[in-house]
Amino acid sequence: MVRIAWFAFVAIALCSVIGRAQVTSWETIDSIGTHVYYDIDCADADHCIIAGVQEGTISIVRSTTDGGNTWTIAYADSARLTAPPFYVPPIYHQIAQPTRSRWFVIGDSGIVLRTTDAGSTWQRQQLGDPTQLLYGISMLDSMNGIIGSMPQSVYRTTDGGNVWRALQLPDSMRSFTINDIALPTLNTVIVMMAEGDTWVTVRSDDAGATWAIYPGAPNMLRLHFIDSLEGWAVGVDRDTNSYKGKDVVYHTTTGGRVWDLQLHKKIEPSYGLFDVDFVDRLNGIAVGGVAKILRTTDGGTTWVPQQNTLNRNAIPSIPAVAFPSLDRALAVSVFGIVLRWANPAADLEALLSRRLIGLGANYPNPVTTYTMIPYEIPSAGVMSLKVYDVKGSEVAMLSSGPSVAGFYTVELDGSTLPAGTYTYVLKHNGATLSKQMVITK
């Protein structure tokens, strides 16, 4: 409940701080004062879902199929977690919409809701015992995903949520609490955990069979990874005895093994960052307390405050953002408000012209058996990913043919190649990138 309590406090109890509005406007496209929203996710620019509470008594899931112009209640849960006179509804903390029709909703008492037909019918599941708080979901695709449960449980599905299997975290993590999780590839599981002032990144590269522990990014609330190696984490470095503090953004290009500080400053109003989403390696949006929205177009090197229509006198925290395409993003306020940002045509053209193919470092490297190579395709076209030996001879074709924009990871079986240094080359629509790997025996 840490994150929800933080939003509620900032939204209700603090005094307003009026910051200077800057560049690029977000518009209010939906507002229902009796609603409280906690999370938003989008399958694409038109299809999105929201989790929240209606009138303080009914937990709901709302959906749109037209980019937020119209919304419908796809699910309403009147269940109660305690006996009268409390009538506390189960709160859905996070959601995932990997496809237009398949949605996942997680919350209190180990509840998992799942639909495979865009909300027409729902299946309700129970993970663990009813005291568990599910607090983090990451769906790689419609079949593969993970769920985090406070304090330290992780569940995985490989069949679209029919079965969730518990993963065994290291025994040394038993006193730590999960803050967020990520599943950037089939075999890569990343868990951000904390105990007091100690933060760690717990990572598995074999689908949870074994784990490695690395120093974490302090004061982080949410993670976002675009592949197995590159990701961001956002949060707040609080002042002593205060809910105010510095906005914090960390960046990793090593899959969480090392985190580099990108942002650590007070950007008024200074109540921290609660969520972050990147549409590619350059373009991201972070949101937080008191109507704060920050945008980057250079991978997080710089963050620019964004103007929006929220009334800061009401202290409207923004707990979640979805950035499904370069021309559109949506965010939700705890006061039942949905915001939408539409990129101006001139800005969109400039951003599209800057998008480049991306080729990540393979891991592990050196290679003894299998290694994973992450890459990014910015637009439709024709691509190839090949491996060459030191003589320039092609020794492996990893991918080739028509391309669709997106982030990908391909596996190379290094055991079939002699020991030595190899170069892997990505080509797409005339652009070329290359990196080297070493195969050992």
In the CATH hierarchy, what is the class of the largest domain?
Answer: Mainly Beta
Task: Report the principal-axis shape.
Answer: globular
Number of strands: 35
What would CATH call the homologous superfamily of the largest domain? Answer: YVTN repeat-like/Quinoprotein amine dehydrogenase
Architecture (CATH level 2) name of the largest domain: 7 Propeller
The overall pLDDT, averaged over residues, is 85
Main pleated sheet? 4 strands, antiparallel
Radius of gyration: 22 Å
Strand order of the largest sheet: 1-28-27-26
Strand percentage: over 45%
How many helices does DSSP assign? Answer: 2
Distance between the termini: 49 Å
Could you please describe the fold and organization of this structure?
- The chain has 441 residues and is mainly beta.
- It has two domains: 2-352, YVTN repeat-like/Quinoprotein amine dehydrogenase (Methylamine Dehydrogenase, Chain H, 7 Propeller); 356-439, Immunoglobulin-like, CATH 2.60.40.1930.
- 5% of the residues lie in helices and 48% in strands.
- It contains two helices and 35 strands.
- It has helices at 2-12, 345-354, and strands at residues 27-31, 35-42, 48-54, 58-64, 72-77, 92-96, 103-107, 111-115, 123-126, 133-139, 145-150, 153-157, 165-167, 177-182, 189-195, 198-204, 212-215, 220-225, 231-238, 245-252, 260-265, 273-278, 284-288, 293-296, 304-305, 320-325, 328-332, 337-342, 358-359, 370-377, 381-388, 394-403, 406-413, 420-428, 431-439.
- The strands form nine sheets. It has a four-stranded antiparallel beta sheet, with no helix packed on it. A four-stranded antiparallel beta sheet has the order 2-3-4-5, with no helix packed on it.
- Strand 34 and strand 35 form a beta hairpin.
- It is globular and about 70 Å long.
